[in-house]
Write a structure and sequence with these properties.
Layout: H1 8-22, H2 26-29, H3 33-40, E1 45-54, E2 60-71, E3 77-83, H4 89-105, E4 112-117, H5 126-140, E5 149-153, H6 159-173, H7 196-211, E6 221-224, H8 229-240, E7 244-250, E8 253-257, H9 262-273, E9 287-291, E10 304-306, H10 316-324, E11 329-331, H11 340-353, E12 359-361, H12 363-366, H13 369-383, H14 389-414, H15 425-443
Parallel strand pairs: 3-4, 3-5, 6-7, 6-10, 10-11, 11-12
Antiparallel strand pairs: 1-2, 2-4, 7-8, 8-9
Helix pairs in contact: 1-4, 3-15, 4-15, 5-6, 7-8, 7-13, 7-14, 8-9, 10-11, 13-14, 14-15
Length: 449
């Protein structure tokens, strides 16, 4: 591997998966799967292109565009498009790699991919964003399609951007098809799609609470990070179910207080729609704003911590602080929200304290609700029909329950645990997703032994 450029985010994601496979009995029972791991870790295709667009001053701007088509053994490549100045190939490979196994855990027929650009939408006008999206999709449209690759939104890509990109694709290809998910409700979008990642996270952790004998969400204190789509809808569902949300954050800092209200969420959502920071949220003194901080060491005693912002937002020290404060459940609403060192802390405490331990769930399982409803949107598009809000929500609940149960039972099968020890959801989810993809690849001749 020395001939390859360093890719720290992808290497972290790969090592996190590989280590749990190696520390289970999977390779003892199925040594041939070591070959499958080598094959699945290399993308089927990486597309990189330039994006040339014009700003409001009439000046030419250029960005890098990417699409990592990682694995299609279970269906068309599926995964979001991220617009953020930090986007590079390492980040997109890590996200695409995670997406393979996340999509497998939904039980839907979707492969894994990810894409985006180092374009920064902050501070850009609507016209500049439209021009960029048109230029970006003009190139990407050559490589995607309803039966090939179906992107969705991610950081920096919401309904507005999906609309501009879909219109560009439709005109360039002269086809109206379900090539993007997260579309407007009037032209092929699904109900519950904006809420899906946040809602699904809450549904998943609800099963963790129940299995661990901690009851339901009523009376639980919850620390949340992020203030975008995932955090907003997770907070609203938590409040609806009787929990108390004590924190939110963005890239500039965090707010911590007694209780976030639905009215607070509405005000923050309006700010974020205009791409404004939390510093502009008028909380009338009900919260403490912590510049440059994340909420984990400041939220006090909480029952549940839900990182919902971006990768590596819970460090080893923050994990130790959460454990010391009595946090019992941690689940990622963001992709790879915890560093490997933080996961090691949670897993060590899980083994040591058994039923009274902190219990950690990885993003590839806990935040799969978003791509699950994207898959349901694809199904509705294929049938030219639209399901009710209640039907989509029930399907989402069923998918999250199945993802939890699959990871739980797989951990029991392949990971030795002491009596009274909670099963490792990170190991179980990794193994379950990997085995499903590996078997499909083997059946299709992608690897053999």
């Amino acid at each position: 591997m020395s001939n390859l450029s360093p890719e720290p985010e992808f290497e972290q994601a790969y090592n996190e998966l590989a280590s749990t496979l190696e520390n289970s009995s999977l390779f003892e029972q199925h040594p041939e799967y070591k070959i499958a791991l080598k094959v699945v870790s290399i993308p089927e295709r990486v597309i990189q292109f330039r994006v040339v667009w014009e700003d409001d001053k009439g000046e030419l701007q250029v960005n890098r565009g990417y699409r990592v088509q990682f694995n299609s053994a279970l269906g068309p490549y599926k995964g979001g498009l991220r617009l953020h100045p930090t986007v590079n190939l390492s980040i997109l490979k890590f996200l695409g790699f995670e997406q393979i196994f996340k999509n497998a855990l939904t039980g839907l027929m979707m492969g894994g991919g990810k894409g985006g650009s180092d374009f920064d939408p902050k501070g850009k006008s609507d016209n500049e964003i439209r021009r960029f999206c048109v230029a970006f999709m003009s190139e990407l449209s050559k490589h995607i399609g309803g039966n090939t690759d179906v992107p969705a939104g991610d950081i920096g890509v919401g309904g507005r951007e999906i609309g501009y990109m879909f219109g560009t694709y439709r005109k360039a290809r002269n086809q109206f098809e379900g090539v993007l998910t997260g579309k407007g409700l009037n032209w092929g979008g699904s109900l519950i799609r904006p809420e899906a990642t946040g809602y699904g996270l809450v549904y998943y952790v609800g099963h963790m609470l129940q299995y661990a004998g901690a009851g339901d969400w009523k009376g639980k204190r919850v620390a949340l990070s992020g203030s975008g789509n995932v955090a907003q809808y997770a907070a609203l569902k938590l409040i609806e179910l009787g929990a108390t949300v004590v924190s939110l954050s963005d890239s500039n800092g965090a707010i911590v207080g007694d209780a976030v209200t639905p009215e607070d969420i509405d005000a923050i959502a309006e700010l974020k729609l205009r791409r404004r920071p939390l510093t502009e949220f008028d909380h009338k003194g009900r919260f403490t704003y912590l510049a440059g901080a994340r909420p984990w060491v400041h939220a006090g005693k909480v029952d549940v911590a839900l990182p919902c912002a971006t990768q590596n937002e819970v460090s080893k020290e923050e994990a130790e602080a959460l454990v010391a404060a009595g946090c019992r459940f941690v689940a990622e609403g963001s992709n790879m929200g915890c560093t490997q060192e933080a996961i090691d802390v949670f897993e060590a405490v899980r083994k040591e304290k058994k039923g009274e331990a902190v219990w950690y769930a990885p993003g590839k399982a806990a935040n799969a609700g978003g791509v699950a409803v994207s898959g349901l949107e694809m199904a509705q598009n294929s049938q030219r029909i639209k399901w009710s809000r209640e039907e989509v929500d029930q399907r989402l609940k069923d998918i999250m329950k199945d993802a939890f149960t699959n990871g739980l039972e797989t951990a029991k099968k392949f990971v030795t645990a002491a009596e009274g020890e909670l099963p490792s959801l990170v190991a179980g989810s990794n193994i379950a997703g990997f085995v499903k993809v590996a078997e499909a690849m083997h059946d299709q001749g992608d690897w053999w032994a």
